[in-house]
Amino acid sequence: QVQLVESGGGLVQAGDSLRLSCAASGRTFSNNAMGWFRQAPGKEREFVASISWSGGSTSRADSVKGRFTISRDNAKNMVYLQMNNLKPEDTAVYYCAASYSNGVITTPSLYDYWGQGTQVTVSS
After folding, report:
1. Rounded to an integer, what distance in angstroms lies between the CA atom of residue 14 and that of residue 85?
2. Distance CA 106, CA 38 (A)
3. SS3 call for 31
4. What digits encode the pLDDT tens for the residues 58-83?
5. What is the rounded CA–CA span in Å between residue 10 and residue 19?
6. Are 79 and 71 spatial neighbours (Cβ–Cβ below 8 Å)?
7. Is the pLDDT of residue 26 over 90?
8. Could you give the CA distance from residue 38 to residue 118 in angstroms, rounded to a whole number?
9. 10: Cα within 13 Å, side-chain hemisphere
10. How sure is the predictor about 96, in pLDDT bands with cuts at 50, 70 and 90?
């Protein structure tokens, strides 16, 4: 089992930055590919970013390329999502997820564990 707890969300203005953190506990964290997803009201959960076991491979959705960066610290069992130049359309609940698979994974169904989410609200 892997337990995931997100933090770092909040209310910001357009153009601001936030860093989301995901603390993992349980099984060996370094064996899990990790991802960030988000879900806005009335919309389906969508892929944001993913990172491989080692951190050597990452992937981001086109909508966040150039603004968001995913990283991980396996020694601390942490995954981060640095979000710069936030836009109102980034408003959503952001979820951290862990997969037994390696590589960069964009499909929610391929993730095995999910956190409870953290709210990010960007005002215009």
Report:
1. 7
2. 12
3. helix
4. 999 999 999 999 999 999 999 999 99
5. 10
6. yes
7. no
8. 9
9. 11
10. very high
